[in-house]
Amino acid sequence: MAAYAARPNETRAILRTRQAAITRADDAGDSWKRIAVATTASFRGLSAVSADIVWASGTGGTVIRTVDDGKTWDVRIVTGAENQDFRGIRAFDADNAIIMSTGNAEKGLARIYRTSDGGKTWTLVFETKTPGVFFDSIAFWDRKRGVVLSDPVDGRFVLFRTNDGGTTWTQIPPASLPAALNGEGSFAASNSCIALEGERNIWFATGGASVARVVRSNDGGETWAVAETPIHPANASTGLFAIAFSDARYGVAVGGDYAQPANSPPPNVVRSVDGGKTWQVVDEPTEPRNLFFSSVAFVPGQGFFTGVPVLRAAGPAGAVVQRAGRPWLMESSENFNVVANPTRDVAWAVGPKGFVARLDSQMAASR
Questions:
Q1: Are 17 and 35 in contact (CB under 8 A)?
Q2: Which long-range contacts (CB under 8 A, 24 or more apart) does 177-183 make?
Q3: How many angstroms separate the Cα of 148 from the Cα of each of 87, 209, 269?
Q4: pTM of the predicted model, to two decimals?
Q5: Which among 267, 273, 265, 263 has a CA at the least distance from the CA of 254?
Q6: Which residues does residue 110 pair with via DSSP β-bridges, in sequence order?
Q7: pLDDT tens-digit profile of 251-289?
Q8: 3-state class (DSSP) for residue 289
Q9: What would the CATH number be for the domain defined by 13-354?
């Protein structure tokens, strides 16, 4: 949604990092470590290929990358894209990545770039100037097949898909998608409002209308269905901001009111156990329960014994982890935009003003 606007240009640098601890709400011995990176860009795009290889993207055409566990970072400005806000990124390895810019298409702010040399050079592979297009999120099933989601145009959501690694993009016929509600859109808050799973499953979450909904397809975007959730936004700043599925049936979506990050009216977390057909308010409350969340991600390998996946959610008021069979645990009160869990013991997060952080949890989520 257009509530998130592009921000000023930043600078280019390569540096070695230093770390400082972020306060953890409990004293379990695991701490988020803030990592200094030579940029003041605000980041909403994050792609953790592994614990060691991490990419992030943001304002001022900025992309950062580490391949050594955050010890050193490349900070680059994409040539010719200094006015772009890259809110979406999908990296496949240390060399190959795709970035998506967010903004009004008619102003030249709806673009997709690719790199194959670790971010040294970028190629513009797709741009649309169709009025009303506003990219919210980009996601891939694998290295070849992916989708990019826009807010609605003429009452229908807009999605493009690729089958060749992002070299070419084709719009999914708008008539195949459910009609958008008045004021409905998705949020470009963390590149997390769309989730892909398996070979062809797609879900995306919405807000800003009378009810927050989840739109889904089980055939790669050929046909679509829609489900209402228990969240009924009172204004355009409220709804579901992020969605994740651990398998074809179990999914979680989070959100709230981004205008009230520390006092967001509940509910802010909903869950589906039937592939997104129905959604229920999550029983276990957050601590504190009125947080606004812009990002959610499952923790790989957790929940094996309980059968209930473990997840981490984050937003401007902090980060929490939901541990199997136990209440939500507050991990940090720092300003997070997006969080990623490349392994069960390592998490990465990025946020405003050059914020980058890493957590070595040492099984914290299962204790």
A1: yes
A2: 177/215, 177/224, 178/215, 178/224, 178/225, 178/226, 179/155, 180/152, 180/155, 180/156, 180/206, 180/209, 181/206, 181/209, 181/210, 181/211, 181/213, 182/209, 182/210, 183/208, 183/209, 183/210, 183/236
A3: 12, 21, 24
A4: 0.91
A5: 267
A6: none
A7: 999 999 999 999 999 999 999 999 999 999 987 766 667
A8: coil
A9: 2.130.10.10
